[in-house]
């Protein structure tokens, strides 16, 4: 069940939307006054907020700003105010969508599901990223483990960054040479790539002799695992 908070002082519209969305497993709790909605947000968990702009006691843009500042919840503005400035301001404040009245309830249902799909995927990506021990910052040319900077030579950085980008896949020695500005095939002949791999393991592995992250796949190349 998708749970939605709606701030709408037009009772007929609120009832219409509530009944329509119910058939799509969307439960709407409407608040005629913004202060009641803000109080409820402090106590209850909602998946999304539908917000009118013309409200008693508090302008919808001020409500939008407060919700964005305090809560991690997507917002759809549902308003009859046609001034482009209101739309731009709402989106700049952090609203996810702006639906001008009047509109077909079917459009609202589609937008709700589209926003929640993107929002939930983003949250999953963030959670997954937080789980990772190693992170690559391409702009800074830095690699960290558990937030700690790993001191690498230029060649070590090139090799490890490539393996991180291809995490979970086997990267052949030829691919490493082809994607490196510092290494050439003389390294392959001299065995220096193996030396670089060993130096990286010394810096990132708990036990370099039994690596769990930078693995050698015999006859193929290397694989990086978090």
Automatic annotation (TrEMBL):
UniProt keyword annotation of Phosphoprotein present: yes
Domain of life: Bacteria
Keywords: DNA-binding, Phosphoprotein, Transcription, Transcription regulation, Two-component regulatory system
Gene3D superfamilies for this protein: 3.40.50.2300, 6.10.250.690, Winged helix-like DNA-binding domain superfamily/Winged helix DNA-binding domain
One GO process term, biological-process aspect: regulation of DNA-templated transcription
Pfam families xrefs: Response_reg, Trans_reg_C
GO cellular component: cytosol; protein-DNA complex
Residue stretches making up the OmpR/PhoB-type domain: 124-226
UniProt key word Transferase: no
Domain Response regulatory: 3-116
UniProt-listed PROSITE patterns: OMPR_PHOB, RESPONSE_REGULATORY
Positions where 4-aspartylphosphate occurs in the chain: 52
SMART domains for the chain: REC, Trans_reg_C
Entry GO MF terms: phosphorelay response regulator activity; transcription cis-regulatory region binding
Residue range(s) of DNA binding per entry: 124-226
Alphabetized InterPro entries for the sequence: CheY-like_superfamily (IPR011006), OmpR/PhoB-type_DNA-bd (IPR001867), Sig_transdc_resp-reg_C-effctor (IPR016032), Sig_transdc_resp-reg_receiver (IPR001789), WalR-like (IPR039420), WH-like_DNA-bd_sf (IPR036388)
PANTHER family according to UniProt: REGULATOR OF RPOS
Protein name per the record: DNA-binding response regulator
Organism: Malaciobacter halophilus
């Amino acid at each position: 069940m998708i749970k939605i908070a709606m701030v709408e002082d037009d009772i007929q519209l609120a009832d219409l939307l509530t009944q329509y969305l119910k058939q799509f497993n969307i439960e709407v709790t409407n608040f005629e006054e913004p202060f009641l909605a803000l109080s409820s947000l402090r106590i209850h968990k909602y998946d999304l907020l539908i917000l009118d702009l013309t409200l008693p006691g508090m302008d919808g843009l001020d409500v939008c700003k407060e919700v964005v500042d305090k809560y991690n919840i997507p917002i759809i503005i549902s308003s009859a105010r046609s001034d482009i400035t209101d739309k731009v301001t709402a989106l700049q404040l952090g609203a996810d969508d702006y639906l001008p009245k009047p509109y077909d309830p079917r459009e609202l249902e589609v937008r709700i599901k589209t926003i929640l799909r993107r929002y939930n995927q983003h949250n999953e990506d963030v959670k997954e990223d937080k789980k990772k021990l190693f992170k690559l910052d391409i702009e800074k040319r830095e690699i960290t483990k558990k937030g700690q900077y790993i001191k690498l030579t230029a060649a070590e950085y090139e090799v490890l960054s490539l393996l991180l980008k291809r995490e979970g896949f086997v990267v052949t020695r030829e691919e490493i040479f082809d994607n490196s500005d510092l290494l050439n095939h003389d390294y392959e002949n001299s065995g220096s790539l193996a030396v670089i791999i060993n130096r990286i393991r010394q810096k990132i592995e708990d036990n370099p002799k039994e690596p769990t992250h930078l693995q050698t796949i015999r006859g193929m190349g290397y694989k990086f695992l978090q």
